[in-house]
Amino acid sequence: KEVQRLKTQLDQYTDLNEEQKAKIEELMPEEQLRSFRSSYLEIARQLKEIQQKEGDNAPENIQQLDFEFVLFASALVDYDYIMNLIAKYTQQQPKKQKMTREQLIGVLSSSANLMEERDDITDYINTLEVGKPLNEQQIKDDYQKFKEEKIAKKLSEIAQKHGLSTLALQQFTDNIISRMIFDAEKLSELFEALDLGWKERTKRELALMQELIPVLKKKAEGREISGLKAYE
Questions:
Q1: Residue 208 in contact with residue 158, Cβ under 8 Å?
Q2: What pLDDT does residue 72 have?
Q3: What's residue 70's pLDDT?
Q4: Pair 196, 204: CB distance under 8 Å
Q5: What is the pTM of this model?
Q6: Cβ density class 161-196: b for 16+ within 10 Å, e for less
């Protein structure tokens, strides 16, 4: 974090000559700095999940952490920039690559801007082939389809695990997202066909929600779902 703070301070100097810029690059190579940022953001993300999941039960030293994600946000690396970069990656000739898959993922991983999307975008990049060119709009459309298919697959796995109908679970989540309201009665209706006692049904409902909440949050894309906090 302190290395990034120094880099941010140095970037504010606009009157640096070429020799000074070269010295900074020698002491703090951009590739190495990007690697530091990626590692920091990955560890910070894991610890932030512990903070959110365990709350007051998390170790005190983790509770007190301030990750200062704003330090790692980039005005340059936004969604459109990454989509454009991915398009350029696909348009390269296999034998004349200027950017490798690893470098592309490195750029994505080194900014805090897209932390929520990072895993999905990384998985999507890993499906692409150099030499099969796509333009930016095609990438955006293809990525959206990829995300939807990934969520559908996850819902199918969750439904199977909990003995539910995939279609019923899909409709349940779609209904929540369309209204941005969580309906506990609809949750109970999912388990009606299993003919469970109330204790067992409550236990199964809570177990389902533990797996369903991350999916719902992903589908909500930052918007708040009313009534969901009761299950977090």
A1: yes
A2: 62
A3: 65
A4: yes
A5: 0.67
A6: ebebeeeebeebbeebeeeeebeeeebeebbeeeee
**Ramachandran area for residue 150 (φ above 0: left; ψ -120 to 50: alpha; else beta):** alpha
- Cβ distance 220 to 177 under 8 Å? yes
Instruction: Count the Cβ atoms, other than its own, within 10 Å of residue 108.
Output: 22
CA 170 – CA 172 distance, rounded (Å): 5
What pLDDT score was predicted for residue 173? 95
Question: Can you read off the two tokens belonging to residue 146?
Answer: 């990829």
CA dihedral 15, 18, 23, 27 (to 10 degrees): 80
For 76, phi then psi, to 5°, come to -85, -45
Residue that is written with structure tokens 């560890």 in the block: 43
Burial of 80 (C-beta count, 10 Å sphere; 0-12/13-18/19+): exposed
For 14-31, b/e burial (b = at least 16 CB within 10 A) is eeeeeeeeeebeeeeeee
Query: Which residues, 6+ apart, have CB-to-CB distance to 213 below 8 Å?
Result: 228, 231, 232
Distances in whole angstroms, Cα of residue 106 to Cα of each of 29, 30, 61, 215: 14, 11, 29, 25
Q: What is the per-residue pLDDT for 12?
A: 75
Spatial distance between the Cα atoms of 220 and 214, rounded to a whole number of angstroms: 10
Separation of alpha carbons 228 and 232, rounded Å: 7
